Amino acid sequence: MIVAGAGGHALELLDILISQGMTENLYFFDGLNPISVFQDKYPVLKTMDQVKAKFLEDPRFILGTGNPKVRAMFFEDFTKAGGILFSVKGTGIAYSNFAFNNDADIFNLCFIGANTKIGKGSLINTGAQIHHEVKIGKFSEINPGAILLGKVEVGDFCSIGANATILPKVKIGNYVTVGAGSVVTHNVPDGVTVLGMPAKKILESKD
After folding, report:
1. Does domain 2-85 bear CATH number 3.40.50.20?
2. Which residues are annotated as a binding site?
3. Of residues 9, 131, 132, 186, which has the active-site annotation?
4. Which of the listed residues 10, 51, 160, 198 has the most CB atoms within 10 Å of its CB?
5. Which amino acid positions bind substrate, per UniProt (predicted)?
């Protein structure tokens, strides 16, 4: 299995894989930085030709970065190379029987409520709370300790900052960044950054 990425996020991901006994024939991929071994043990692949060769043995890959755009890029490139996305589920998760989140990574100690829907390639990071009937689009990042209360909707390619709180029924558009610690009380349109308590727009994306 290949982890797509070999930075800080991959460090935390590796601990989950070790705790679940999933490190046999484990490789990491980093085509930019001059490293050949990750954590002094795991080989680092450098080219897509190497990735394709490993996929003949095991087609599974994990998204080893938190950045929404980079996650989507890796997903597209690795899928084209013959890979199959493998989604990680950490330990200590309070997980409803009525949640629909098979294609999302969910790290340790999260709460995932009833009738929640989380899109392909999204990341629910350590200690985040996703309450009842929340909908999250594809390749979005919910950072550690963030709280999404009932019936919140988050679009595609969003980043919800650490310890941010999104109040019930608030709708967040696509390509939105919510600053760490913010409290979002009103709907947020596509492509903006909001910050504060209550959160206000501070930047509009060029995307």
Report:
1. yes
2. 66
3. 132
4. 160
5. 66
